[in-house]
TrEMBL record:
The keyword RNA-binding does not apply. It is an enzyme of class 1 (oxidoreductase). Its EC number is 1.8.1.9. PANTHER family: THIOREDOXIN REDUCTASE 1-RELATED-RELATED. Its cofactor is FAD. Homodimer. Residues 3-281 form the FAD/NAD(P)-binding domain. This is Thioredoxin reductase. The keyword Oxidoreductase applies. Keywords: Flavoprotein, Oxidoreductase. One of its GO terms (molecular function) is thioredoxin-disulfide reductase (NADPH) activity.
Length: 300
């Protein structure tokens, strides 16, 4: 019997596995290895790991884990989780491997949907990004575009103004800003283009210009876009795990969900950054060990 199965091997999952394995519990980490930051060349703002390639970050993390005989890593995707007669969680992967565990940690991250612009995936992660705290410094003081199709538009606009004074905002043909918000953009010298984008031009992932339906082409060196983030995993609903209105799992600081033995950490509990996910994973590891010690201790 396995003490803990961790589903997902990003910073959240690897941190949980490290703490649990160091707590002398057997832990199996199952990872399909498709993190959403795989499109980018460098990750930023993780202290001691600034500018690291995502694949190198993962490789270093896995190396840390494999120093411990209590931790093993399996490649694969978990498809189902069911509770069996022994009150253990039974997990099945798409390769039909079955694991029985006392506790399960969900650290599966999120998947993102980019704005509906033809060819946008050629630039996303190289010169078009979604998080200014991750990539704002690299894009600072450049002529930038914000492709904002959602209600986050004004918030992201305000943030981006911190990194550049040369910002054009486009809604790609959608109606996103109300009259007051448009006035605020004008006051802040930010041009708004509400037309549909017809073409993104550039080289090797480096954006050079954006063309609109009217035929107007604006030169831009890169930019940001709003994205939709979710990860609809059938077992979340099947197990009755509580999610918030955005669809993210509700977990406390120690990773507890509403289901005993099921923990969650990292972006599946809400969008964040590498260091935040790692720290949530660490706290969840502490939570699991503390719960297990509490259960094992003979109280009078
Ligand atoms: C373009 C881009 C640039 C970014 N740049 C930065 C940056 O510079 N700095 C920063 O701090 N953050 C950055 N981020 C955000 C960062 O990638 C995330 O915050 C972080 O990866 C979240 O960690 P996580 O462990 O929660 O999830 P992830 O890292 O996404 O890991 C989840 C893992 O679980 C696996 N998985 C999912 N479902 C299953 C399943 N059913 N079975 C098994 N495995 C499964 C996935 O394949 C994946 O390997 C960036 C994101 C993007 C998109």
């Amino acid at each position: 019997m396995i003490d803990v199965v961790v589903i997902g091997g990003g910073p959240a999952g690897m941190s949980t596995a490290l703490v649990v394995g160091r707590g002398k519990k057997n832990v199996v980490l199952i990872d399909e290895n498709k993190p959403r930051n795989a499109v980018t060349k460098e990750s930023h703002a993780f202290l001691t790991r600034d500018n690291i390639e995502p694949a190198v970050f993962k490789e270093k993390g896995r190396r840390d884990l494999l120093r411990y005989p209590t931790i093993s890593i399996k490649d694969g995707r978990v498809l189902t989780i069911e509770k069996n007669e022994q009150e253990l969680f039974e997990l099945t992967t798409e390769n039909r491997e079955v694991f029985q565990a006392k506790n399960v940690v969900i650290t599966t991250g999120l998947k993102e949907t980019l704005p509906a612009v033809s060819g946008i995936e050629n630039y996303y992660g190289t010169s078009l990004f979604s998080c200014p705290f991750c990539d704002g410094w690299e894009m600072k003081d450049k002529p930038l575009i914000l492709i904002a199709e959602s209600a986050q538009a004004l918030h992201v606009t305000k943030l981006l103004k911190n990194w550049t004074d040369d910002l054009i905002v486009t809604t790609n043909g959608n109606s996103v800003f109300d009259a007051n918000q448009k006035k605020a953009l004008e006051l802040n010298h930010i041009r708004l283009i509400e037309e549909e984008i017809t073409e993104l031009k550039g080289n090797n992932g480096e954006l050079q210009s954006v063309t609109f339906k009217s035929g107007e082409e604006v030169e831009r060196s890169g930019g940001f876009c709003t994205t939709t983030l979710d990860n609809k995993l059938p077992f979340i609903e099947q197990l009755g795990i509580e999610v918030n209105e955005a669809g993210y799992i509700i977990a406390d600081m120690m990773g507890h969900t509403n289901i005993k033995g099921i923990y969650a950490a990292g972006e599946i509990t809400g969008p964040s950054q590498l260091i935040v996910s790692a720290s949530q994973g660490h706290m969840t590891g502490i939570g699991i060990i503390a719960d297990s010690c509490e259960e094992a201790f003979q109280n009078t």
